[in-house]
Specification:
The structure is a single chain. The chain has helices at 5-14, 18-24, 34-44, 49-56, 60-68, 77-87, 91-100, 111-122, 126-135. The protein has 142 residues and is mainly alpha-helical. It has a single domain (31-135), classed as lambda repressor-like DNA-binding domains (434 Repressor (Amino-terminal Domain), Orthogonal Bundle). The chain is globular and about 50 Å long.
């Protein structure tokens, strides 16, 4: 995924049909479930699921249910963010995963979201991110 949402919207506006837009941008658009997008990132980043689970800091069984698509509904925003850490996603990729889950993207005016976004940008792990969140008396990711 290389195009911004604004770029995609401009491209969409210029097309005569949605089919033309989809055919030219199919690598930028996901029609599938949350687990499809997660597995796309696992494949493109050449990750092992066990590595994603470990780096996410989540309960092993629960995380595998999300990765396999068995758990698609009622996943909390924090759990989605934890998966972003497990996948080593950029801020932009994380925001796409949040949006696919039905959640708002990271908000830079929010202290907690700012710490999370900075950690994602810098590749800081979830443990150190939680330490920084607790230093600011903010709810940790769990």
């Amino acid at each position: 995924m290389k195009k911004s949402t604004d770029e995609l919207m401009n491209i969409l506006k210029s097309k005569k049909s949605v089919d033309e837009y989809f055919s030219e941008n199919d690598d930028e658009i996901f029609f599938g479930a949350l687990s499809d997008l997660i597995n796309y990132y696992i494949a493109t980043k050449k990750l092992e699921k066990s590595e994603v689970v470990r780096k996410s800091g989540m309960n092993r069984g629960y995380c595998y249910e999300i990765l396999s698509g068995k758990k698609e509904k009622n996943i909390s925003r924090d759990k989605v963010i934890m998966i972003c850490f497990g996948l080593g996603l950029s801020i932009e990729e994380s925001e796409q995963l949040l949006k696919k889950s039905g959640y708002n993207p990271l908000y830079s005016r929010d202290t907690r979201d700012s710490i999370i976004a900075f950690s994602l940008k810098e590749g800081i792990g979830i443990i150190d991110t939680n330490i920084k969140l607790s230093e600011y008396n903010l709810e940790i990711l769990e």
